[in-house]
Write a structure and sequence with these properties.
Layout: H1 21-50, H2 52-78, H3 85-94, E1 103-111, E2 114-122, H4 123-128, H5 133-145, H6 148-152, E3 159-165, E4 178-184, H7 195-201, H8 204-207
Length: about 230
């Protein structure tokens, strides 16, 4: 019988698959937010010791190192096929960096080569706005310019993400907080794999493969696919 929570006696054989869908949704929401809590605590520690510029540089390397790898893992387990804008948007919908509700993201798919997304509210922005324009530009300009293309090009090497508008908010209190355009074009030069990504691929976390669930269901669906580079019109 599936559990709606973990009340009652301790179960030494507890597994996530023992939980009901509703319980898993609650847990996934919290886990996505915990990613941000971990990021805040680690980068606050860096900033206290080394300053804002170090925070920005480490944040860029952190994202470049992890997002291409976890994006591919998410594509495998969720069977996100293709390499158009819709596949990029699907990956962003499942990205722990876009924790649902904490990041209220809206998507507009024009076609498989063009689309927009916007954040009606961004918890990360609300965290840094009290520290002034320098901190806002560090996150919404320096860090995002150094990472968004690496995330999109994990799906398609000819993708790019550019701001339509972004903070500092003008006028103040502007909603949506930011809006971004995603374009796939033959003229886009791929960013290539960053050295930090290659190093991260060698870690046990990147190479770990989950065993089947207790009922024998494989962690990765049996009809695995190898994403192919898209043929552009």
């Amino acid at each position: 019988m599936s559990r709606d929570d973990y009340s009652g006696a301790f179960d030494p054989g507890f597994r996530f698959e023992d939980l009901s869908k509703a319980a898993l949704v609650r847990l996934v929401r919290e886990y996505a937010l915990i990613v941000h809590l971990l990021d805040r605590s680690s980068l606050i520690a860096v900033g206290m010791k080394y300053g804002q510029e170090a925070v920005e540089e480490i944040a860029v390397q952190e994202w470049r190192g992890a997002s291409p790898i976890y994006t591919q893992r998410i594509r495998e387990i969720m069977r996100i096929e293709g390499d158009g804008v819709s596949a990029i948007f699907k990956c962003l919908q499942l990205d722990p960096g876009f924790a649902q509700h904490y990041m209220d993201v809206e998507y507009e798919l024009i076609d498989e080569s063009h689309g927009f997304f916007q954040l009606r509210t961004c918890g990360a922005l609300l965290d840094v706005e009290p520290f002034g324009e320098r901190a806002v530009r560090g996150m919404c300009h320096h860090i995002e310019d150094g990472t968004f293309d690496w995330t999109a090009q994990a799906v398609n090497p000819r993708a790019r993400i550019r701001p339509v508008h972004r903070p500092p908010r003008v006028p103040g209190g502007r909603v949506p907080h930011c809006r971004w355009e995603v374009v796939i074009d033959d003229g886009t030069e791929p960013v290539g794999e960053a050295p930090i990504t290659a190093m991260t691929r060698a870690t046990t976390a990147a190479r770990f493969r989950f065993p089947p669930m207790s009922d024998g269901t494989p962690h990765v669906p049996p009809d695995e696919f190898t994403p192919r580079e898209r043929s552009h019109p």
